[in-house]
Amino acid sequence: MRLLAFGYGFAARALARRLTPQGWSVAATFRQPADRARIEVEGVTPILAGDQQELARAAAEAQAILVSAPPDAEGCPGLRALVPALARAQAFPDWIGYLSTTGVYGDRRGRWATEASPLAAQSIEGARRVAAERDWLEVGRGMGLTVTVFRLPGIYGPGRSAFDRLRAGGARRIVAPGQVFSRIHVDDLAAGLEASIGRPRAQGIYNLCDDEPCPNSEVVAYAAGLLGMAPPPEVPLADAGLPPQALRFYAESKRVSNARAKAELGWRPAYPTYREGLRAVLAAGG
Hints:
Elements: E1 2-6, H1 10-19, E2 25-30, H2 33-40, E3 45-48, H3 52-61, E4 64-67, H4 77-89, E5 95-101, E6 112-113, H5 124-143, E7 147-152, E8 154-156, H6 162-168, E9 173-175, E10 183-185, H7 186-198, E11 204-207, H8 216-226, E12 234-236, H9 244-250, E13 255-256, H10 259-265, H11 274-283
Parallel strand pairs: 1-2, 1-4, 2-3, 4-5, 5-7, 6-13, 7-11, 8-10, 9-12
Helix pairs in contact: 1-7, 3-4, 8-11
């Protein structure tokens, strides 16, 4: 079995770590020459993203394709590269997963969002994700491909968590009354993708997130306690001096439901709240 990852970042690496012990081989795209060696040292086959012949060959060999590269002003770069490659190779992988964001729901004023909720992205990045989801699902219908979309909140794990910001002295407990959001440990994300690969569903859409949405300030305080540090002082949002992109994040508040993924994929997060997740990150040396 072979996985082709278009984009090889935090999430794709976690999925590769999960699949390779089960006998899967992994190929991943790269754009910069320096990235080739970095991918190869992990035992992953590097594929130049702009080489259509190489990409078509990799697509023909893949049973599963994961697209995690973010969209740009022209849409999803994975779609632009992979659709002609798949057509050229006449390839029909068992599963294509596109990683989107829960930002497509916009601000729910703290209410729950499900996969059936209306999309109301409030940022350029969110609007691009809405368009990329639509494009991938339309391509799936048109080409007879099994495309599944995953809407993800903030992803954390070893090397990317509140611990890193606290140790660097850059963590802040920004207080935005009523603001909550969901998150997911990267290993739970990988487990959800693996579950979907085992149960491929064309046109599927799943939220992958933990069970307890909460304010970011609560997470930072808990992480500080695990490190034996005093939590940073609370800073009102109005006094935080955040850049526009961060302000857009704090302008949205929603609780994201993972009920469909649990019901249809048989998936359960190993870290149902940030507490279990952060303890695991710390135990792993993160």
